[in-house]
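Can anyone check this?
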Amino acid sequence: YDDIHLVVCSGTGFNEIYSFPGDMRNASCYGKIGLTYPRRTNKRLAPRIMPGGCAFGDKGPAIVDIQGSPWALLAILNSRPISYLVGLALGASETEGGAGANSYEVGLIQRLPIPKEALNDPILESNANTAWACRAKKDIYDESTCSFTLPFPSTSEKNSLESHFYKISECQNNNIHSYLKCLSAIDEQVCNLYRFSESDWNAIQEKGGDAHMPEFMSLEQPKFKTANASSFISYFVGSALGRWDIRFATGVRQPPEFVDPFDPIPACSPGMLQNAHGMPAEPADEPNDYPLRITWPGILVNDEAHVSSEGKSEDIVARIRDALTVIWGDQATAIEQESCDILNVKVIRDYFSEGKTGGKFFKEHLTRFSKSRRKAPLYWPLSTESGTYTLWFYYHRLSANTLYTAVEKFIDPKQEEAKETFAKLNAKQSRSQDEDKELEAAQLLVAELATFRESLLETAKFWKPDLNDGVQITAAPLWKHFRLKSWQKTLKDTWSKLEHGDYDWAHLAHSIWPERVIQKCITDRSLAIAHGHDEALWVEVTDAKGKSKWQTRQNAEDIAKELISQRTGLKL
């Protein structure tokens, strides 16, 4: 089992990718169900299910058009006997681990002998299906996966967080025991089908590599409770922003059963708040009796005093408490305190305080949403220089108006409040030591908010976020407002590369530097397709041999100048 977490923008028939200089192999097999595996790894061969609607690549080969049961083949290829045979082909000294990575080339896997009767064996099918389900169930509690529903098994019993953690570990460990039993049954059946002797099996056990061993969960493990408590808090933030359907937590809705793992991956994980078509819900889709107010603009603030012009608080802590109350009722305060104890903070607000070097929540969140060298945090803390005032933006609600909204609805009112506080304290003839500190803080806040405001408005002139660019590129122009140094550096480097033209496929690059990007579209059709200039700049022709090919139009330069003029005329 594996969670497929990477998405490619396929356009119309992968046109952008087809036109990119390079070679696409076996693209006619894209979208087919099958199995896939990492071609190069220092671990043993580990195929997993490839659902419909997927594209594969050189580093992740695919097995399609399977003549028999995909489940049976999945069992065979994950068995220790096959791992042993593959090890013989690779070289006995490099079977498992070793100094270098094993390379499971397509030809090597194609040559594996597979008994015909094995491909429809009911024992292999059944055990592979059960083993897959046992491994997949762990992702029900992981919000970064396609299977996420809830970060806890159930709240029907309003118990402490620790009791929920115990249930999570118990469920996970029971699934692991079942999983290992399935692997043992698969190994035994594969040995029978291959007619391996007892001495063969002894050799396989010695050199065939260990079973694919998941990690057992324990409340005694360092970070286990911390990670789960952080997951809980993240869920409450997402619930307030309308990302998650809190009715699953209250028991009003029951979690759905697993879909067929070979079906195409749905747009939303099961726990998301969705419309009737299975897409992320919008304000018009919110049920009349929904139990939690949703912050649809996607902006929260770490400010206890915040009250909107509509008389509502968008303070991130207040919104978390709203979600806690919906789920736990009069026990919400106790659950909040237990969370603080586990997370080692005095109050929950401390968990969200950014300071000059970033806060605990964002560090955990960034780690949770980082995989395969890709970092994609969904909740962005944009702060003043000292981190004393922080706005939290929800990535999926970003628009060209988001920064203007932040200034109008949050920064301007806060700046007026800080000015009033400063004027009131400054007018006092005598002040206490605490009042002097408050005066100094108000003066600093007024200055920092002015800088923050100016910077956001300057960025808003050219910032037109497009989610297809990805989190890192979209956030890059805002790099100076993140306090976590590692993330700030990543974004600053990304912004520098954007400026130098490294990511001119990005919509953001096109909106900021249309002159440079549109000019490149004349020589790179994949860029032209990405930015919607394909038909204007390129034409399909037939050469002397009757073959069809694409070339730039004769007047492409003039057309490009007109496109640039249109774009720059729209720039503020």
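Reply from J.R.: I decoded it. The mean pLDDT is 90.
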